[in-house]
Amino acid sequence: MRISRRVLGAAVAAGLVASSAAACGGDDKKDAGSGGTELKGVKVEVAAKWTGPEEQNFRKVLKAFEEKTGATVTYASTGEDTDAYLGPRLDAKNPPDVAILPQPGLLQQYAAKGQLKPLGPDVVTEVDKNFSPYWRDLASSGGKSYGVLAKAAYKSILWYRPQAFADAGIQPPATWADLVKDAQTLQDAGTTPFTLAAASSDSWTLTDWFENVYLSQAGPENYDKLAQHKIKWTDPTVGKALETLAQIWGKPDFLAGGLAQATKTKFDASVTDVFGTQKAAIVYGGDFAAANIATTKAKVGTDAKVFAFPKAGNTAPALLGGDIAVAMKDGKGAMALMKFLASPEAGKVWAGLGGYLSPNKNVPPSAYSDPIAKQLIAQLQQAGDAARYDLSDLAPAAFGATPGKGEWEALRAFVQKPSDVKGTQRRLEDEAAKAYK
Amino acid sequence: MMAPREDTPPATAGAATGGAAATGPDAGPEVGPDASTGRRDGLRPPSWLAGSFLLPALVLLGFLVVYPIVYTVVRSLLDSSGGFTVDNYSGIFEGHSNLLAVRNTAIWVVVAPTLVTIVGLLFAVLTERIRWATAFKLVVFMPMAISFLASGVIFRLVYEQDPDKGVANAAVVAVHDAFSAKTAYPGAGPRAGAAQPLRAEGGAVVTSRPVTAGSTALLPLLRVKPEYLPAEPVPARAAAPPGPGRITGTVWFDFTRGGGGRPNAVDPSEAGLPGVRVQAVRDGKVVASATTRDDGTFTLTKVPAGPLTLRLPADNFTAAYGGAEWLGDTLITPAIIGAYLWVWSGFAMVLIAAGLAAIPRDALEAARVDGATEWQVFRRVTIPLLAPVLVVVLVTLVINVLKVFDLVFVIGGGDPNAGVLALQMWTESFGGGNDQGAGSAIAVLLFLLVLPAMLFNIRRLRRERK
Questions:
Q1: H or E stretch including A435?
Q2: Which residue in A389, A408, A362 sits closest to A105, CA to CA?
Q3: Minimal-distance CA residue of chain B relative to A253
Q4: Which of A6, A90, A264 should we substitute to test contact with B (largest number of B Cβ atoms within 10 Å)?
């Protein structure tokens, strides 16, 4: 009895060791793709930073892909900081099949480390058929194409409430001076002119304001140099842009809720404060703000309109952002999805949902659900060679894409103390020097 | 059959508190004497068997605890190219946001555990005396069932700046407004620029040119927000000519809806502003005053002769009180500690209430019989008897506070003024900083800070077991 219990004990112990060793050894076996022409049973994981309405729209696009091919697509949200999500997963050799990168800088970074899969020939053909070379170059590294520009954002616009403009008897301004004058008129009429999303988490809106003014004043060439940190942030051109911005940011009366509220306002709230609760008349937002406006009772095109970001200098600013899809794993599913995202088919589905702009030439303007998008496409094409990619997204993430750090927080501090142009420039340069090394 | 059951608890307790290192020595010496006496041989497993049972746990602990700790220390001593450096450690105390994180962590460690323990103690003592104690405790404990992330989202809303959205500011504004006079037209003021009939003086608005008795004044105002206008505005009209010793005039919103109105002239569709206090001032002294009617007109009576200034005093225009800046530079850390208090006071209360129930009643009764007041009983008897429990709660909370992350991440939203070391650790290594060396250094520092509290807890547990 005693012995048998011991033996039993030893056996159980040995079993435990064996099973735990097996557990520690890990079972890395991948589910083999079942093949087949229809991609039935193929699982594709997509990671993107979209949440809320943007995510819902993207899920509908993925749904169209699923219906077309029979593959199963899962969506993973990367959160606001894409690199923080993808970095560890790449290190662990377990990346999603397809990732949507919000910055071209990340594409270069991953491509340099060999962590991306080059596009297959049929995807390249699809891209060439639908996109102008500018977009292909943006998503290429070392002569190889890695990305498909899934979605472009047009950032050189301001949204406004036409009723507020009509009450104050003003027209959308074409120049910065007019914008300041109109803001004063709006205020005289009893309407707060702006909401500003200057919370730490959403200070990217401030970088967009700055970039529009800078591109307009200093021109595309200086803009490129600043993006590569070939011009220091202590340069007089930067100071001039900040002084220009201070004409609006420096007047707390111009901002809904004053400085106290503006520096804590998130982007979503800045849009709904204008079109939902109507606390102000103008908000910066890019075309994607349409998705936020859709959550209010205001109707895009009638209760919410856009005007081009006013010229502060000689150049009419045309800033673009864009989310680039890249494949991180080999496999039929990943490439098929990349091809789908490059096709006009995906663009048409997405365009019908709003909050979306496609640089895809073969998505006809009629595919867009709102007239605003049609207006923006015209602006985008008119800009031609002067169009530039968002500067903060071209900069290293530590400088241009991190809440509470770098350009975001430096400009937020400037909103709090708009008289300190020199100090802000020094701070920007310090942070840039650290990040660009 | 009793013996094995007696023996097992120390082994498991050792594994739980001391970790892998403590288990071996604990198990070893105890088996020795037993084996030599031979009394209980057979009632307990031999050491190799016990060891092999423990092996899976040891392997897991090694993988999940020891290896990461050792590797973090190694990583903290490497720079980005893999060379040896100590800059990561000195870097913790350099740079504005890092210093803020160090300062805030110190505030957290000192304030949060103390506050939570005190509040928990109060709740525990008070719930002993009420009838619905269980229900009350349930409610206080309930936030513990909510994740920190969700609590963060809740408090982000509570602290929202706009009093229309944030309940904290809604309460503050309601209390403030209950004690202050109602402002008629917050934010309104004269037209900007030189040569206007009115100009701002301090918070008040005064006429640029002197006015004399027997004349009529036009006092145009701008920037009147629609929510402060009367529901059905009465069109402004020019005041009737005054009799002797009087001044009449109109205060109105000089902006024609849709634009096109004449500046400083009463246009037909422009609204009069009722309820504005108007004063006639000479040499800083108010000689007459009036309040405007629905159409914005007013009449000042018994006005002495000679030049006067008309003044619309500042209390007409004081900007609406917006509440406290909960998420501003200075209040943000206390505000987040407030959220932490909401979550954790239930935990402290339950533990302390359990300790309270274990206090011998006769000690309290004896003190009362000896004529001690309730406060003296609490201060001189309850607290000393509770001290061990209070210390456990405090130390547990200190450990917990050092790693506070979610609340700060969600409520602070990246604001460096809210930063703490645990958050900074993440930001430096993954959240944009991309510098795992610096992040590891902060992790090691946090580990060293937690260590004394852990050792204290382990020693106390050992002492109690004896």
A1: helix A421-436
A2: A389
A3: B187
A4: A264
Report DSSP letters for B266-282, one per residue.
--TTPBB-TT-EEEEEE
Provide the greatest CA pair distance for chain A. Answer: 100
Write out chain A residues lying below 8 Å of B97, CB-based: 404-405
Res. A206: pLDDT tops 90: yes
ipTM of model over 0.85: no
**What is the rounded CA–CA span in Å between residue B203 and residue B319?**
10
Residue A393 has pLDDT above 80, yes or no: yes
Task: Collect all residues with Cβ–Cβ distance below 8 Å to A12 and sequence separation of at least 6.
Answer: B53
Q: Which of B60, B192, B414 sits opposite A201 (nearest CB)?
A: B414
Per-residue pLDDT tens over the stretch A23-32: 343 333 333 3
In this structure, are residues A219 and A385 in contact, taking their beta carbons and an 8 Å threshold? no
Q: Which two tokens stand for residue A43?
A: 């699982």
Identify whether the C-beta of residue A178 lies closer than 8 Å to the C-beta of residue A309. Answer: no
Contact A190 B253 (CB under 8 A): yes
**Could you say which residues of chain B have pLDDT below 70?**
1-42
CB contact under 8 A, A185 and B259: yes
The shortest CB-CB distance from B431 to any of A14, A84, A258 is to A84
Residues of A within 8 A of B61 (CB-CB) are none
Please indicate whether, in this complex, the C-beta atoms of A16 and B325 are within 8 angstroms of each other: no
pLDDT of residue A385: 67
Contacts of A170 in chain B (CB under 8 A): 259
The domains spanning A43-153+320-386 and A157-315+395-436 adopt the same CATH topology: yes
Higher pLDDT, A371 or B244: B244
Of A13-22, A62-71, A280-289, B103-112, highest mean pLDDT = B103-112
Closest Cβ–Cβ partner in A10, A12, A257 for B162: A257
CATH class of the domain whose range is A157-315+395-436: alpha beta
Q: What CA–CA distance (Å, rounded) separates A108 from A112?
A: 6
- Topology classification of domain A43-153+320-386: D-Maltodextrin-Binding Protein; domain 2 (3.40.190)
Q: To which H or E segment does residue B103 belong? A: helix B96-127
CB-based contact A263:A239 (threshold 8 Å) = no
Q: Where are the domains positioned within chain A?
A: 43-153+320-386, 157-315+395-436
User: CB-hemisphere CA count at 13 Å for A242?
Assistant: 27
Select the more confidently predicted residue: A413 or B1.
A413
Give the integer Cα–Cα distance in Å for A215 and A319.
Answer: 8
Instruction: Give which of B40, B158, B161, B262 to mutate to test A binding, by max A Cβ within 10 Å.
Output: B161
CA atoms of B347 and B351, how far apart (whole Å) = 6
Classify residue A5 by burial, with Cβ atoms within 10 Å: 0-12, 13-18, 19+.
Answer: exposed
Partners of residue A265 in chain B, C-beta under 8 Å: 161
Over 50: is that where the pLDDT of A130 sits? Answer: yes
Of the ranges A284-293, A366-375, A417-426, which one carries the lowest mean pLDDT score? A366-375
pTM here? 0.80
Query: For the domain bounded by B89-171+326-465, which CATH number is listed?
Result: 1.10.3720.10
Q: Which residues have C-beta within 8 Å of that of residue B60, sequence separation ≥ 6?
A: A20, A24
| Domain locations along chain B | 89-171+326-465, 198-316
Q: Do B325 and A260 touch (CB under 8 A)?
A: yes
- Contact call for A9 and B45, based on CB within 8 A: yes
Yes or no: say if A187 and A253 are a contact pair by the CB < 8 Å rule: yes
Tens-place pLDDT, residues A254-279? 999 999 999 999 999 999 999 999 99
Distance of alpha carbon B437 from alpha carbon A392, whole angstroms: 25
Are A16 and B56 within 8 A, CB to CB?
Answer: yes
User: Look-up: residue for tokens 């060891």?
Assistant: B51
**Partners of B222 in the beta sheet?**
B189
